[in-house]
Amino acid sequence: MSTDKQEELSPDAQKRLLLDYAKAHNIFISPEYIFVENGISGRKADKRPEFQKMISIAKADEPPFSLILVWKFSRFARNQEESIVYKSMLKKQHGIDVVSITEPLIDGPFGSLIERIIEWMDEYYSINLSGEVIRGMTEKAMRGGYQATPSLGYAAVGHGQPFVVVPEEAEIVKYIFDQYVNHHKDPTGIARQLNKRKLLTKRGNRFENRNINIILRNRFYIGKVIWNDIERDGTHETFISPELFQAANDRLDATYRPKNRRELAGCAHWLSGLVKCSTCGASLGYNRSSQYPFFSCWKYAKGMHPGTNSINERQLIDGVLKYFEQLLDGADFSFAYRTSESDEPELPDEKALYEKELAKIDQRKARIREAYEAGIDSLEEYKENRERLTAEAARIAGLIQELEAAESDSPAPDPTEHKAEMLEKIRTVYDIIRSDAVDYETKGCFMRSIVEKIVWDRESNTLTFFLYCSSSSGT
């Protein structure tokens, strides 16, 4: 039974009729070879575990059955290409027929033609139904209707009514926004604090930094209902102000996270993860076990390269402060422009979607060739289908080339345009890190907002700073 609410018999009723048919035709049915799929679409065979299990058993050297009974051919498959390939493989390679007890076929070419028409109608019905469902959901979205599970802080009441606020969950969401915006905590640190308090996500799981990022990006908290890129004003109560939401997203947009740099919540010092070894590029770990805490290359400590590369904590902090003071006094400097990187799951870009379509076309080419080799399609039909798919592949390849050309023509941002903005950020960071009243996590967050890394070279006694600007204005 599919998910589309069509008026058809339930799986139990189908099973009963199939067993009655088998008994009337002296067919023995072993209980272990009754395969039932409830609530799964028949459009894609690779998404149907019971179907795949049945096919796997049928492909054994000595298959335990010689016939597959279905209530309707649509229960076997709703994709004509897959239906043809699987039926042909079962018949020609394993001697197994697929029989519909409600759609009897006569022998000969006319029977095969009727079977193909039934398969085509089943696929058309499935495609048309899918389009009707999408149109209905789109219309509902255009009217601001709710068709997603409630976000943390809300519960559904049904009957098309707006979601209602769940006070205890809403407090968790408020805490996340407050910690991120007003206390400048990073998502990993916020997740740890929530887990320490034994608070759970909407699905009852422990928090991760990606959960925090998703919540901070969720426009439902400012009254928006979004489905399939359609955004409308909802009628539900909100508890996050638009100003707080915007401040959170401005910070998310302006936060650049270099690859392989640890989150601040997992570091022992506000400079941890930023200072790198000039010899091997590894991070300098913070060691506070001695009277005079210091940073030292962990690869050197493991014996992975000669020549120690360590620096006293006080010397490092003084060097950072001195460098920022020089910049604020007018020293020249350069910096890189970085776009923001997020811990949220990345959505596939347009090029990736086109490449996925090309892969699908390759699969369809393989299937039509199998149908031709199995004697299902004539040579003319095979050539026609192959030419059609080849033309479609060429069209998509052209779209990919257009995207690549557009990307290469896009001018790169000019970092010098942001120098005044960068100096303002440097001044803010300098004021934060030199204050004894500011905690280490806040200092670390502000440092990471402009410093990509600091390379320490003990031999030359130099600190090399790599600064970056990631403007929230999007310029």
Describe the model.
The chain has 475 residues and is an alpha/beta fold. Helices cover 46% and strands 11% of the residues. The protein is built from 14 helices and 13 strands. The strands form five sheets. It has a four-stranded mixed beta sheet, covered by helices on one side. A hairpin with a 4-residue loop joins strand 12 and strand 13 (462-469). Helix 3 (80-94) packs parallel to helix 11, helix 11 (350-373) packs antiparallel against helix 12 (379-409) and helix 13 runs antiparallel to helix 14 (440-448). The radius of gyration is 32 Å and the shape is elongated. Residues 3-7 and 341-348 have low confidence and may be disordered.
Q: Secondary structure elements and their pairing?
A:
Blueprint: H1 11-24, H2 49-58, E1 67-70, H3 80-94, E2 97-100, H4 109-142, E3 154-155, E4 164-165, H5 167-181, H6 187-196, H7 209-217, E5 224-227, E6 230-233, H8 242-254, E7 275-277, E8 284-287, E9 294-297, H9 298-301, E10 310-312, H10 313-328, E11 336-337, H11 350-373, H12 379-409, H13 419-433, H14 440-448, E12 451-457, E13 462-469
Helix pairs in contact: 3-11, 5-8, 6-7, 10-13, 11-12, 13-14
